[in-house]
C-alpha cells in the first residue's frame, strides 16, 4: 500500500470516526445519561461552578480539584476554540454555534459520568501517584474481565498514539504557523523554545503540570475573555441580529445567511453536523481524555470531582467557543471572500479579521498570543493523558520518564514540519478513543447513577444550605473493596 492509498484510507476512516453516525452516538449517550441522572448535572451546574473555587484538597490524590480541572482544561481549551469555531461557522453557517451549545449541554452529563468512573475505579501506582481514567474503569468496573481488559487496552493504545499528534505535533505546528506567518520568527527557533519549555514542566510530572496549568489556563482564559468582550461591546448593535440569525439558521431546513453571514448557505443538518463535531472536538466530552486528570484529584467522593470536571465543558464550549462565535458574528466578517483565492475566509484568518474590526493591526498579536497559550497548555495536558495510558500498558518508570523526554522533543518536529499523514492518523486515533469509552459509559451507567444519587442525598442537599460535608461513605467503601480484591 502506497502513501497515497494509506492517506486515502485514513481519510475514509476519519470521515466515519468524526462523521454523523459517531456524533449521533456521542450526543445520544449524553442524552441518555442526562435522563438517567434525572437532569442532576444540569440542575447542579451552579453548585459545580461554586465547587471549582472552593478549597477541598486534604483527601487522597495528587493535585487539588481546581488543578485537576485546569489540567483537563489545558488539554481541551486549544486551537479548536479559535480556529475550529471559525471553520464551523463557515462550513455550517452561524447556526453551527447553536448546535455546539446543544451538544455541550448533553456533554455535561457525559463528562460528569466518565469523571465519576475515573475516580471510583482509580488505583495508586508504584510511586504513590493516582492512576485512573476510562481504562481503569473498564478493567475494574466491567465484570466480564475479557471485555473490560480488551476495551482498556484499545483505549490506552489510542490515547498514546493520539497524544503525539493531536496533543503534540499539531499544537506545536499551530504555534509555529501563527508566530511565523505573523512576525516571521523562524520555525526552528519556535520549536526549540517550545521543546525546552515543555521539557522543563513535563519531566517533573503531574504536580508540575497541575501547578503550571493552574496559572496558564486562568490567565489565558481571562485574556481571551477580555479582548473578546471588547470586540462584542464595540459591535454590540449587531449582536441581537447575529444571535437571531444563529437560531434561524440552526433550525432552518435550507437557509441562506442574512446580514451576518454574507453568501453562506447551510441546511439544519449541515449546521448540526459541523456544530456538534467542532463542539465535541473542542470540549472532548465522550472522548475519555479529561477523566484521566480527574482521577488525580484530591476528593472525598467520586461525584464531587465529576461535578468539578464537567464544568470544563461549560467553560470550554459555552464560554470560550461562544465568545469566538459572537466576535465573528458581531463583526460582520463572516462570509467574506478572499480576493486572492476567490474562496471564503475561514479558520484563523477569519478570527483575525473579526478582531481587526476593533483592534486593527494588533489583532494578529492578540490571536497569535491566544493560539500560542492555548496550544502550549494543550501539549501539557495531553502529555499527562498519554503518560497515564502508557503507564497502564507498561508499568515501568524508566519507560514513563523516556516518554516525557521524547514527547517534549517531538514538539520540535511538529513545529518545523507538516506531515499530513501524521495529522490524519492522530486525528483518527483521537476519534477511535470514543468507541471503547462510550461502551464503558453505557455498560457502567448504573455505577454512575448510584454515585450521583448517593452524593445528592448525603452531600448536595446539605451543602446547598451552607453546611460543609466531608463524605465518608459508599465511595470509600468501594475503594476499600477494590483494594481488598487486589491484595
From TrEMBL:
Keywords: Cell membrane, Membrane, Symport, Transmembrane, Transmembrane helix, Transport. It comes from the Bacteria. The chain crosses the membrane at residues 16-35, 146-165, 185-203, 215-237, 249-269, 314-334, 340-358, 365-385, 405-425. The keyword Membrane applies. GO terms for molecular function: amino acid:sodium symporter activity. It is found in: Cell membrane. InterPro entries: Na/Ala_symport. It is a multi-pass membrane protein. One of its GO terms (cellular component) is plasma membrane. Pfam families: Na_Ala_symp. Belongs to the alanine or glycine:cation symporter (AGCS) (TC 2.A.25) family. This is Amino acid carrier protein. It comes from Mitsuokella multacida DSM 20544.
Amino acid at each position: 500500500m502506497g502513501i497515497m492509498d494509506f492517506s486515502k484510507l485514513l481519510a475514509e476512516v476519519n470521515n466515519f470516526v468524526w462523521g454523523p453516525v459517531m456524533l449521533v452516538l456521542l450526543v445520544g449517550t449524553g442524552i441518555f445519561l442526562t435522563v438517567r441522572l434525572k437532569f442532576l448535572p444540569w440542575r447542579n451546574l451552579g453548585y459545580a461552578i461554586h465547587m471549582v473555587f472552593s478549597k477541598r484538597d486534604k483527601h487522597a490524590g495528587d493535585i487539588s480539584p481546581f488543578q485537576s480541572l485546569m489540567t483537563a482544561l489545558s488539554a481541551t481549551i486549544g486551537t479548536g476554540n479559535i480556529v475550529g469555531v471559525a471553520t464551523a461557522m463557515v462550513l455550517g453557517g452561524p447556526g453551527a454555534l447553536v448546535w455546539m451549545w446543544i451538544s455541550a449541554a448533553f456533554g455535561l452529563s457525559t463528562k460528569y459520568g466518565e469523571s465519576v468512573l475515573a475516580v471510583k475505579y482509580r488505583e495508586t501506582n508504584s510511586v504513590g501517584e493516582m492512576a485512573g481514567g476510562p481504562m481503569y474503569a473498564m478493567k475494574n468496573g466491567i465484570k466480564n474481565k475479557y471485555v473490560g481488559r480488551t476495551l482498556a487496552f484499545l483505549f490506552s493504545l489510542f490515547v498514546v498514539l493520539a497524544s503525539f499528534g493531536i496533543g503534540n505535533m499539531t499544537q506545536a505546528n499551530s504555534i509555529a504557523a501563527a508566530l511565523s506567518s505573523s512576525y516571521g520568527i523562524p520555525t526552528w527557533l519556535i520549536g526549540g523554545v517550545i521543546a525546552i519549555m515543555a521539557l522543563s514542566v513535563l519531566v517533573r510530572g503531574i504536580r508540575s503540570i497541575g501547578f503550571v496549568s493552574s496559572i496558564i489556563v486562568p490567565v489565558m482564559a481571562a485574556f481571551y475573555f477580555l479582548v473578546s468582550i471588547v470586540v462584542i461591546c464595540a459591535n454590540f448593535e449587531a449582536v441581537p441580529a447575529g444571535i437571531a440569525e444563529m437560531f434561524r439558521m440552526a433550525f432552518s431546513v435550507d437557509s441562506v445567511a442574512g446580514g451576518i453571514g454574507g453568501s453562506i448557505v447551510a441546511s439544519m443538518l449541515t449546521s448540526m453536523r459541523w456544530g456538534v463535531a467542532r463542539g465535541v472536538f473542542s470540549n472532548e466530552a465522550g472522548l475519555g481524555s479529561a477523566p484521566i486528570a480527574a482521577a488525580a484529584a484530591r476528593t472525598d467522593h467520586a461525584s464531587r470531582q465529576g461535578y468539578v470536571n464537567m464544568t470544563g465543558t461549560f467553560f470550554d464550549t459555552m464560554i470560550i467557543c461562544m465568545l469566538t462565535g459572537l466576535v465573528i458574528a458581531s463583526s460582520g466578517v463572516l462570509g467574506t471572500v478572499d480576493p486572492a483565492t476567490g474562496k471564503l475566509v475561514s479558520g484563523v484568518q477569519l478570527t483575525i479579521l473579526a478582531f481587526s474590526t476593533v483592534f486593527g493591526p494588533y489583532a494578529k498579536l492578540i490571536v497569535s498570543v491566544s493560539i500560542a497559550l492555548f496550544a502550549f497548555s494543550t501539549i501539557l495536558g495531553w502529555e499527562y493523558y498519554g503518560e497515564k495510558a502508557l503507564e497502564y500498558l507498561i508499568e515501568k518508570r524508566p519507560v514513563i520518564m523516556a516518554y516525557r523526554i521524547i514527547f517534549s522533543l517531538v514538539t520540535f518536529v511538529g513545529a518545523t514540519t507538516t506531515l499530513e499523514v501524521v495529522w490524519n492518523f492522530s486525528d483518527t486515533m483521537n476519534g477511535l478513543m470514543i468507541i471503547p469509552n462510550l461502551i464503558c459509559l453505557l455498560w457502567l451507567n448504573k455505577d454512575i447513577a448510584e454515585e450521583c444519587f448517593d452524593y445528592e442525598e448525603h452531600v448536595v442537599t446539605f451543602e446547598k444550605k451552607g453546611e460543609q460535608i466531608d463524605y465518608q461513605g459508599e465511595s470509600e467503601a468501594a475503594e476499600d473493596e477494590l483494594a481488598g480484591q487486589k491484595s
